[in-house]
Amino acid sequence: MNVRRHHISGVALAAVTALGLGTLTACSSDSAAAGSTDKFDVVASFYPMAFLAEQIGGEHVNVTSLTEPGQEPHDLEISARQTARLQESDAALYLKGLQPSVDEAIGQSEVKTKIDAATLTSLEEHGAEVGGHAEESAGEHADEHGHEDEHGHEGEEEHAHEDEHAHEDEHGHSHETEGGKDPHIWLDPVKYAEVAEGVGKAFEKADPDHAADYKKNTEALVEKLDDLNTTFETGLKDKKTDVFITTHAAFGYLAERYGLTEEAISGLDPESEPSGARVKELEKMAKADGVTTVFYETLVSDKTAKTLAGDAGLKTDVLDPLEGITDKSRGDDYFQVMEANLKALQTALGAK
Predict the structure, then answer these.
(1) Distance between the two ends of the chain, CA-based, in angstroms?
(2) CB neighbourhood size of 140 (10 A)
């Protein structure tokens, strides 16, 4: 649709792809990928945003992801060719605060329609321990579980600064949006649906010729997300424990939505060993709460999880933060991987 866009050769297209402009072929033809003008051209920052654009846009959009499959989104640095591609797009869909280089590139671009998913739902602050008790202090949370003395919370001091400063993730990049807000909204089907509705309205406004289809597609996607939410509610209703351990503090919204508590091994590089104090704290917590599993993710090393699990006599399994789909993913799209996450949580939590 963008009249400034020019046709490029297959060789040039291959070069673009090699530099990190992975086109989602499910919603774009070869001609669209090459820059034809009969599609609404959307550049998405990473998989959760690209999936929304693909589902809502359907046959009318050509979606290009700035983050390659298998690439850790937080590590992304925008290339000059990606910046040029962004300049010639009709819309940019991103989540401000998650990828600084994307924020800068989009902010400086001339893209007419800029859609920041962070503005389409409410964001909250999350730290190493998050869940249904996020508004309580650590001591209040321990009192409710009835084992403050068992937990000891020896590691509280090393994490106390997280309320004042946005903690950095295992890659050294800020893992929170401005103001210390947790960006992982797509892992909560309800919040993801709110974002979908906002994206749909933005598409309708930017490409009014296909507004009816965008509205219809958005409604269908929101219905599927509502069904997924119901599946999670039902699947996690009866369980032996509410607590799960992850190496990556990505599941705070999911935990809060379904009355769970996520304990994350935060502030550690995935290639390094967990601190002795944190391991001791988590071992005590695991024993007190009946935790059986330490979860790791597909895009980073499982070394941290296996180290803790070995020391505490626990199992390991994958809980996928869905920042990208690869051959290692337990599913081909958002819904399949989320269903796999539910099964993994049901097993770990002893859900019936």
Answers:
(1) 51
(2) 11
Which residues, in sequence order, are CB contacts of 303 under 8 Å at separation 6+?
A: 270, 271
Question: What's the average model confidence in pLDDT over 242-271?
Answer: 83
19 has pLDDT over 90: no
Predicted pLDDT at 47: 97
Mean pLDDT of 61-83: 90
CA atoms lying within 13 Å on the CB side of residue 268: 27
Token code pair at residue 62: 């050509």
Of residues 324 and 269, the one with the higher pLDDT is 324
Contacts of 152 (CB under 8 A, 6+ apart): 280, 281, 284
Q: Where are the beta strands (DSSP E) in the chain?
A: 22-23, 40-44, 61-65, 91-94, 113-116, 129-131, 243-246, 261-264, 293-296, 315-318
Crossing angle of helices 47-57 and 211-235, in 10° steps, is: 130
What is the chain's mean pLDDT, rounded? 79
Task: Tell me whether strands 91-94 and 129-131 are parallel, antiparallel or unpaired.
Answer: unpaired
Element (H, E) at 49: helix 47-57
**Lowest-confidence pick of 51-60, 179-188, 224-233, 333-342:** 179-188
Please list the residues that pair with 133 across neighbouring strands: none
DSSP string, 71-130: S-GGG----HHHHHHHHT-SEEEE-TTT-HHHHHHHHHS--SEEEEGGGSS---B--SEE
Structure tokens at 101: 């280089």
- The amino acid present at 255, given as its one-letter code, is A
Greater pLDDT, 26 or 64 = 64
Please give the model's pTM, rounded to 2 decimal places: 0.78
